[in-house]
Amino acid sequence: MGFLEDLTWYVWNWAMYIKSMEALVLCYYAGTIGLVFDDDDGDMQKWCWGLYDNKTMVNFPASFVSSYAPEESS
Question: Rounded to an integer, what distance in angstroms lies between the CA atom of residue 37 and that of residue 39?
Fold first, then answer.
């Protein structure tokens, strides 16, 4: 099961990276649009960060544990 577990972690880390980068890019674009067209002093970007609620902060490598995986005994 080692290969599938490693592959799952690899895909999971990429998914986390893409999601965090999406939040960064979209919020900076929203902030730029708000500053240029509305002169809102960053309110639009602050609102966007509130939507993501710090989901952009990821410590890599992120570990993935399936709900179907047997529990490890310590």
Answer: 6
